[in-house]
Structure formats: C-alpha cells, structure tokens
C-alpha cells in the first residue's frame, strides 16, 4: 500500500431540522392546543484513530464528508430524526490542522481516540415549546442552525521511541532490519528507503519502536533527493540515532557527511536538532581500527559535538546488542 502522510479533506456537518407549527385537530376537540414537534439535530463528524491503519491513502481519493441533516419536526409533538454521525478512521499519530487558520485542532496518539471536528446544527423548536398561559395558540417556531463546515489538513507523524537519520546507504535500514525484523528494502544504491518504516525491538523483556526514514543529502531542504519532509516522522522520538558510514562508496568524508545531515536537520526544525542524538559509526568491519580512532578524533576536534559514540557493523551485527541495551536504559529514565 502506498504511504501517504498528508492530505486535505472537507467536513460538513448536518444542519438541524426546523421546528413545526401545528395544532391538534381531533373529533370533539374543536380547539386543540399546539402540538408542533422539534426538529432533529444535524449529524456530527468525528475522527477516530485506529492501529490497523498506517497511511492516509483512503482519504486521498475521498475529499468531502457530508453528515445527514436532521429532519423537521411534525404534528402530534413528533420530533424529527437526528442526522447520523459520520466517523472517519485515521492512523495513530494523525495531527489535525485547520487548513485556513493553521491552528492545530488536535493530535490522535492512542488507539480508538476520538475527536469531534464538525458539530451538527442544533434542532429548531416546535410551537409546543412556546405555549403559555397568555399564549395558548402560539405560532412561533425556530429554525435549525447550520452545521459546521471546515477544511481540515491531516498530517500523519509516526509514533516511535527511536529514530534513525543519516546519508543514503549509511546502513540505517540494515540496522533496523537486524534488530527489529522490519521489512525494509536493502540494496547497494542510494534511496532504497523511499518511505518511513517502523520496527519493534524486544530486548531484556522490554520493547521499543524504531523508525527508519529515507536518507538525507546536501541541499535536501532545497528539494534535492527526497527532500526533508520525512524528518517530521522523527518529531515524536525520544532519541535519534545518527548513522554514519565510515567507508562511503563515493569516497566522501564521513565528517563532511555528518555536517551535511546536521545542517539539514537544523534547517528543518531547531527543536528536532536539539533532540538527544547519538552518533553511531557504522561499517567498522570495512576499516582499520587506527582509521576509526583518527575519524573519532577529527569529529571531536572539528565538530565539537557532545553526542554519545557507538561503533557498530550493521551487517555483522557487531556492537548492536550494546547499542540496544543502552537505548532501553535511556528510555527507562
């Protein structure tokens, strides 16, 4: 199924039914009193999160949701039928935004969490409601009110404890696949990961969710590669793993690659840039230990960053157990 993480829909709640003006007309009761009933309320529109969904693709094709109107009232004090509510199902992690005002209406982060996004109109009152000791034959009634109408932007932001980021072919997908069994695509060419993938990791009777997102390249913020909009799926993560290829096939500098990713991260979102981040130096099986020490020294001297360092080999699974154990300990805090 194609991964769609944003869409715009229009929601139109039902109008309230009108109240009725009517008087009793029965045999032997020549002057029957008022018996006009109320109208019915208009149908509401709800959003509900569901953990069986992982994309907004169904809402890419159906853009308008109209709830039924409430029926008008009738004689014999019969109220009109209420309009049925409409429920729209979305994946967990869906953020709801008012398209016109850009106001964040809500965020659905739990299974079966519901939110009212368009309220139906209020019912009109029948003439029975206006009967009094000085007004025995009221001819007043009220009309039902108009239901709410909104343009809603839906943004899916995946819920994960840990997120990975780095250049293409840094070994992010291999790491996620080896520790979680996630069905990520792995190949020896750039951008094998085209959409975010979630994996569940179990260790020491504990579990955490890890997210694999497409690689970031220079000028991704300008639209190069796959861009940087996938970085939004790291916003809910408690910690980021910056995967660095120590032996790039294009002979680029690991240090320069680190700078590129951090620069693009900072351009996207300052708060995401400041999120706890560990530096994971990958593919140590392809480089001499003396070279590794040299690179680490250069990172400390030139970048002056405080990230925690890990040396791993995703393909050989070297250092992965220690990394996962430390993640579990960190998430316990």
UniProtKB/TrEMBL annotation:
<feature type="binding site">
    <location>
        <position position="173"/>
    </location>
    <ligand>
        <name>Mg(2+)</name>
    </ligand>
</feature>
<keyword id="KW-0342">GTP-binding</keyword>
<keyword id="KW-0460">Magnesium</keyword>
<dbReference type="GO" id="GO:0005525">
    <property type="term" value="F:GTP binding"/>
</dbReference>
<feature type="binding site">
    <location>
        <begin position="191"/>
        <end position="195"/>
    </location>
    <ligand>
        <name>GTP</name>
    </ligand>
</feature>
<comment type="function">
    <text>An essential GTPase which binds GTP, GDP and possibly (p)ppGpp with moderate affinity, with high nucleotide exchange rates and a fairly low GTP hydrolysis rate. Plays a role in control of the cell cycle, stress response, ribosome biogenesis and in those bacteria that undergo differentiation, in morphogenesis control.</text>
</comment>
<feature type="binding site">
    <location>
        <begin position="212"/>
        <end position="215"/>
    </location>
    <ligand>
        <name>GTP</name>
    </ligand>
</feature>
<dbReference type="Pfam" id="PF01018">
    <property type="entry name" value="GTP1_OBG"/>
</dbReference>
<feature type="binding site">
    <location>
        <begin position="282"/>
        <end position="285"/>
    </location>
    <ligand>
        <name>GTP</name>
    </ligand>
</feature>
<dbReference type="GO" id="GO:0005737">
    <property type="term" value="C:cytoplasm"/>
</dbReference>
<comment type="subunit">
    <text>Monomer.</text>
</comment>
<keyword id="KW-0963">Cytoplasm</keyword>
<dbReference type="InterPro" id="IPR014100">
    <property type="entry name" value="GTP-bd_Obg/CgtA"/>
</dbReference>
<feature type="binding site">
    <location>
        <begin position="166"/>
        <end position="173"/>
    </location>
    <ligand>
        <name>GTP</name>
    </ligand>
</feature>
<dbReference type="InterPro" id="IPR006169">
    <property type="entry name" value="GTP1_OBG_dom"/>
</dbReference>
<protein>
    <recommendedName>
        <fullName>GTPase Obg</fullName>
        <ecNumber>3.6.5.-</ecNumber>
    </recommendedName>
</protein>
<dbReference type="Pfam" id="PF01926">
    <property type="entry name" value="MMR_HSR1"/>
</dbReference>
<feature type="domain" description="Obg">
    <location>
        <begin position="1"/>
        <end position="159"/>
    </location>
</feature>
<feature type="binding site">
    <location>
        <begin position="313"/>
        <end position="315"/>
    </location>
    <ligand>
        <name>GTP</name>
    </ligand>
</feature>
<dbReference type="InterPro" id="IPR031167">
    <property type="entry name" value="G_OBG"/>
</dbReference>
<feature type="binding site">
    <location>
        <position position="193"/>
    </location>
    <ligand>
        <name>Mg(2+)</name>
    </ligand>
</feature>
<dbReference type="InterPro" id="IPR036726">
    <property type="entry name" value="GTP1_OBG_dom_sf"/>
</dbReference>
<feature type="domain" description="OBG-type G">
    <location>
        <begin position="160"/>
        <end position="332"/>
    </location>
</feature>
<dbReference type="GO" id="GO:0003924">
    <property type="term" value="F:GTPase activity"/>
</dbReference>
<dbReference type="GO" id="GO:0042254">
    <property type="term" value="P:ribosome biogenesis"/>
</dbReference>
<dbReference type="GO" id="GO:0043022">
    <property type="term" value="F:ribosome binding"/>
</dbReference>
<dbReference type="InterPro" id="IPR005225">
    <property type="entry name" value="Small_GTP-bd"/>
</dbReference>
<dbReference type="GO" id="GO:0000287">
    <property type="term" value="F:magnesium ion binding"/>
</dbReference>
<keyword id="KW-0547">Nucleotide-binding</keyword>
<comment type="similarity">
    <text>Belongs to the TRAFAC class OBG-HflX-like GTPase superfamily. OBG GTPase family.</text>
</comment>
<dbReference type="InterPro" id="IPR045086">
    <property type="entry name" value="OBG_GTPase"/>
</dbReference>
<keyword id="KW-0378">Hydrolase</keyword>
<keyword id="KW-0479">Metal-binding</keyword>
<dbReference type="InterPro" id="IPR006073">
    <property type="entry name" value="GTP-bd"/>
</dbReference>
<dbReference type="InterPro" id="IPR027417">
    <property type="entry name" value="P-loop_NTPase"/>
</dbReference>
């Amino acid at each position: 199924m194609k991964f769609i993480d944003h869409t715009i829909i229009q929601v139109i709640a039902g109008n309230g039914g009108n109240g009725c003006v009517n008087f009793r007309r029965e045999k032997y009761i020549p002057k029957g009193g008022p018996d006009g009933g109320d109208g019915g309320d208009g149908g509401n529109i709800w959003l509900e999160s569901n953990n069986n969904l992982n994309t907004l693709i169904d809402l890419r094709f159906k853009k308008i949701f109209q709830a039924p109107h409430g029926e008008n009232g009738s004689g014999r004090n019969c109220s009109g039928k209420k309009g049925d509510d409409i429920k729209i199902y979305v994946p967990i992690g869906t953020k709801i935004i008012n398209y016109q005002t850009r106001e964040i209406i809500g965020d659905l982060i739990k299974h079966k969490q519901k939110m009212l996004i368009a309220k139906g109109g209020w019912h009109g009152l029948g003439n029975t409601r206006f009967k009094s000791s000085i007004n025995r034959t009221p001819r007043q009634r009220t009309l039902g009110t108009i239901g709410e109408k909104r343009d809603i932007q839906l943004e899916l932001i995946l819920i994960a404890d840990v997120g990975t980021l780095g250049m293409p072919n840094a070994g992010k997908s291999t790491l996620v696949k080896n520790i979680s069994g996630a069905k990520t695509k792995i190949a020896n060419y750039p951008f094998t990961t085209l959409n975010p993938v979630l994996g569940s990791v179990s260790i020491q009777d504990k579990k955490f969710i890890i997210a694999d997102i497409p690689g970031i390249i220079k000028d991704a913020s300008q639209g190069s590669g796959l861009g940087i909009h996938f970085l939004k799926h790291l916003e809910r993560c408690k910690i980021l793993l910056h995967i660095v290829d120590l032996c790039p096939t294009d002979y680029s500098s690991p240090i320069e690659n680190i700078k590129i990713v951090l620069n693009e991260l900072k351009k996207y979102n300052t708060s995401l840039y400041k999120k706890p981040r560990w530096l994971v130096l990958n593919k140590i099986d392809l480089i001499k230990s003396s070279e590794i020490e040299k690179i680490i020294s250069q990172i400390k001297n030139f970048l002056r960053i405080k990230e925690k360092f890990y040396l791993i080999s995703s393909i050989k699974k070297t250092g992965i157990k220690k990394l996962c154990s430390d993640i579990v300990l960190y998430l316990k805090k």
